[in-house]
Specification:
Chain A: InterPro entries: AhpC/TSA, PRX-like1, Thioredoxin-like_sf, Thioredoxin_domain. The complex is a heterodimer. By secondary structure, chain A is of the alpha/beta class. Chain A contains six helices and nine strands, in the order αβββααβαβαβββαβ. The longest helix of chain A has 21 residues, at 2-22. In chain B, strands 1-2-4-10-7 form a five-stranded antiparallel beta sheet. In chain B, strands 16-17-14-13-20 form a five-stranded antiparallel beta sheet, with no helix packed on it. The radius of gyration of chain B is 33 Å and the shape is elongated. The chains are: A alpha/beta, B alpha+beta.
Chain lengths: 204, 677
């Protein structure tokens, strides 16, 4: 009887937990999911390492046209340069699985970081098993997240408001990440905390 | 060899001349990886006439392009337009399909698609020049953006000249562009936020039994993944996942689609949208009450009630009131029971209309026997009246029974009066439907209650006297007419056997009465036994006959959909449209006796006929329009479009099997011959 009871409770909790796992995501206003990933240079980064700091996380796939839009134009690198210069941390993650578009071995990743003029806080984080991407609910490249010093997600979504693949539209677009960071630095509320993340699907 | 070259050169020259300058041709298409884009536009525009042109995306198999809300990833195409000589409207987006791509869901199109653009030439313009800078994204799993510029130069002349294939393409995709909310067969009744879910409740107008696909317009608010769908008593509930952290909004837009067409619900505010349904519910309840009052005057109800009232004139006020209340209780209880039955059957998936008692042969036969006996009694053939009044007049059960009887008697009369309210009741939520039933009942009971409760009114009724007998005898005639009508219904239900069984029973009952009055001793017992025997025989004969009656199968009948009908006709199929309504008894009878017979269904199937049941129970405006086009404003209407025929043939309102089989006697061999080559 008792075994039966506890078994049913266990099954019930599994049933409740299953969708929670499936829908796990970095949601604005909630705590960021924990992660621990190794970068192309072999250094491990975890959420705890960034406690007390502002952190931007960016999903990357070198062959995605939307990533190319922001890297080919230099837009992403200049954002990285500007905000890391203000003491904000910036991690760029590759969640492409081995054999899928955008997957990079560590050595290749170092080369790509170099020829893309990556200005992030670390070389690419290599999440080939997709664990970090799934924990964050990263759907597209480039999907952007901002985490505040308390470890809470304050922005999740697209980099800007224009889902064109044409780099020519960048100057006319409103950059959500820059707007959110500028507002936070000056102690104001973030005007847009969530948007539809446009781009290519993450190749898990 | 030389000759062939020469021929090729000539051909090229000729095609140059035919196609016009090659430069224009080149500007009219744009090509990218896996995509080719071209105009769908007329060769000339008509001055001042609005036109719809299109950007036709021919996409490689398995690749797709996107809807206005691309979904979880991807991007809608962009159209940057420069136009001279015309006014353009907004891009029209045909409704999309959900495309699951790995862990995401996108909204887009499999295969080719036309994005449409409405355009009206400026007055006085002689030429239209349209330049479109396009950007699109084409995806399989990986995505490839494409860019291109299309240029269109067309003269504006007296009339629009189209390439027929292109015009058909525009028409095909225009039919898939969401229509106005007012014409939607579904309307939103509630939009609510429940945690990370956004819950949309839709209600079908009319008897829509299927449920539509729903696509959110705002990808920033709702994910594109298919919502959980739950059907609840005439309503469909869709649970969408919110985009995590999306900021709260006041309203959301959706497109609903039945798979062939779509409608847009542009601006559904959050909260319960009770105002208009509640208002219309009150109107319906009022209409039902008024209809119930009118029912008192129906020839099938009035005689019963007037006799009842006269029976009560001499009794005391307290007694009268009690009788009146009992009568009202009988009416309401019967309506409640019938309503519950209707709801139960509806829940069982059977959408049925009101007069359904009259679709059951035993019920009809029982009513025939009852009215016949009452009519005979009114005529003075025997004192059944006294007995009935003893039963229905003095005892409590009597008044209650009169109430029950009144409802059953009234039901056939409700059809023409209350069609709309009952049609609504057939699809409304249970509580509203029951409210309408009870309002009908209250209306039916009200005059009788009023008469009994208010002595001044009752005193105005004439004093009983010999005139009452005359009146009673007179009132027998509507009852005889009712018997004939019911016999007709039985005949429609069962064919000639129905008439035979019904009228034999009538004679047997008269004979039983004669026996009872003629045989001096024990005559009454003989009479009762004989009538009981006659009833048993009649009902078992009925059972036997009805066993052979066909089971109605409605699965093969497609709901009314002009697009599907046009498609079927274009494919060269014959189309048979049954314009019907649940409250139309002739329609039900035709259905049961002809259309749904296995033999007839066989004939339809052999000839590959597209069968359409246009249900007008709720006076669906589209069906009203289709009926008007046929020059009709009532049902039944049976329209037959022979394969390839441009005009329908209308069949008589009372169908016979031979009329249907006759349709195929000339043409039945043709399809087979066509199949051979």
């Amino acid at each position: 009887m008792k075994i039966k009871h506890s078994l049913s409770r266990w099954v019930a909790s599994l049933l409740i937990a299953a969708p929670m796992v499936a829908f796990a995501a970095a949601v604005p206003g909630e705590k960021a999911p924990a992660f621990s990933e190794v970068d192309a240079a072999g250094k491990t980064h975890s959420l705890d390492d960034y406690a007390g700091k502002w952190l931007v996380i960016e999903w990357f796939n070198k062959d995605c046209p939307y990533v190319k839009k922001h890297y080919g134009s230099g837009n992403m690198q200049s954002l990285q340069e500007k905000y890391t210069g203000e003491g904000i941390e910036w991690l760029t993650v590759i969640s492409s699985a081995k054999g899928k578009q955008g997957y990079l071995e560590p050595a290749e990743a170092m080369d790509v970081a170099k020829n893309h003029n990556l200005n992030a806080s670390a070389p690419f984080l290599l999440d080939a098993d997709g664990s970090m991407g799934r924990a964050f609910g990263a759907k597209t490249t480039p999907h952007m997240f901002i985490i505040n010093p308390e470890g809470k997600v304050v922005y999740a979504g697209a980099i800007d408001d224009n889902d064109s693949a044409n780099p020519a539209v960048i100057p006319k677009s409103t950059n959500y990440v820059a707007t959110a960071l500028d507002a936070s630095m000056s102690g104001e509320a973030i005007p847009v905390a969530s948007s539809r993340a446009y781009g290519c699907s993450v190749k898990y | 060899m030389i000759a062939r070259r020469l021929a090729a050169l000539l051909l090229t020259l000729v095609s140059f001349l035919l196609c016009g300058p090659v430069t224009v041709f080149a500007q009219e298409t744009a090509t990218g990886d896996h995509v080719r884009v071209r105009w769908l536009a007329p060769e000339t525009f008509a001055a001042g006439e609005p036109a719809t042109i299109g950007f036709y995306f021919e996409v490689d198999p398995e690749w797709h392009v996107y809807w206005r809300n691309a979904g979880d990833s991807g991007a809608a195409p962009r159209f940057d337009l420069n136009i001279a000589g015309a006014e353009t409207g907004e891009i029209l987006w045909p409704f999309p399909k959900r495309l699951p791509i790995e862990h995401l869901t996108n909204l887009g199109y499999e295969g080719n698609v036309a994005y449409l653009l409405p355009l009206t030439p400026d007055t006085g313009a002689r030429e239209i020049v349209l330049e479109a800078n396009l950007e699109w994204l084409v995806c399989k799993v990986d995505c490839i953006p494409g860019f291109g510029t299309l240029r269109l130069e067309r003269s504006v002349v007296g009339r629009e000249v189209w390439d027929p294939a292109d015009r058909d393409l525009v028409a095909r995709f225009l039919a898939r562009v969401p229509g106005a909310e007012s014409s939607s067969p579904w309307r939103a009744t509630e939009l609510a936020e429940e945690g990370e879910q956004v819950v949309l409740t839709l209600q079908g107008r009319g008897e829509r039994q299927d449920f539509p696909q729903v696509f959110p317009l705002d990808g920033g608010l709702l994910t594109a993944a298919a919502p959980e769908v739950e059907r609840l008593d005439g309503e469909v509930v869709y649970r969408f996942q919110r985009v995590p952290g999306a900021s709260p909004v006041r309203a959301a837009g959706f497109v609903v689609s039945d798979g062939a067409r779509a409608w847009s619900l542009e601006n559904v505010p959050f909260g319960q949208l009770t105002e208009s349904p509640a208002q219309s519910l009150w109107l319906l309840v009022l209409a039902a009450f008024a209809g119930g009052v009118i029912l008192n005057l129906m020839p099938c109800v009035f005689p019963v009630l007037s006799i009842k009232v006269f029976g009560l004139i001499n009794s005391g006020a307290g007694h009268r009131l009690r009788e009146a209340l009992l009568y009202g209780a009988g009416v309401l209880a019967t309506f409640a029971a019938l309503g519950a039955l209707l709801l139960l059957l509806r829940a069982g998936g059977a959408a049925i209309g009101w007069g359904f008692q009259l679709q059951s042969a035993p019920v009809v036969l029982a009513l025939i026997a009852l009215f016949w006996l009452m009519a005979l009694s009114f005529s003075g053939l025997f004192e059944f009246g006294q007995r009935l009044m003893n039963l229905a007049g003095s005892s409590r059960g009597g008044s209650f029974a009169t109430g029950v009887l009144a409802v059953f008697v009234a039901a056939p009369c409700t059809g023409p009066f209350m069609g709309a309210a009952l049609g609504a009741a057939a699809v409304l939520p249970a509580v509203s439907a029951m409210a309408i039933f009870l309002a009908l009942g209250a209306g039916l009971a009200a005059p009788f209650l009023l008469l009994c409760a208010s002595p001044p009114l009752l005193r105005r009724l004439p004093q009983p006297g010999p005139w009452m007998d005359k009146l009673r005898q007179f009132l027998a005639f509507p009852l005889y007419l009712t018997v004939i009508w019911l016999l007709w219904v039985l005949g429609r239900l069962l064919g000639e056997d129905g008439w035979l069984i019904g009228s034999l029973l009538l004679v047997a009952l008269v004979f039983a009465i004669w026996l009872g009055r003629t045989i001096s001793r024990g005559g009454r017992i003989v009479g009762y036994s004989f009538s009981a025997l006659a009833l048993v025989v009649a009902f078992s004969a009925l059972q036997l006959r009805e066993g052979k009656a066909p089971v109605a199968g409605t699965g093969i009948w497609a709901p009314f959909d002009p697009v599907a009908i046009t498609d079927a006709r274009e494919q060269g199929r014959g189309v048979f449209i049954d314009y019907t309504a649940a409250w139309c008894i002739t329609c039900q009878v035709n259905k049961k006796l002809v259309l749904d017979l296995p033999e007839i269904q066989d004939v339809f199937q052999r000839n590959n006929v597209y069968l359409v049941r246009a249900d007008w129970t709720d006076h669906n405006p589209e069906i009203t329009r289709a009926l008007a086009e046929l020059g009709r404003n009532s049902v039944p209407v049976y329209a037959w479009y022979a394969p390839g025929a441009s005009r329908p043939e209308l069949l008589p309102q009372i169908l016979q099997e031979s009329m249907i089989t006759g349709l195929f006697e000339d043409s039945s061999r043709q399809p087979k011959e066509d199949d051979k080559p």
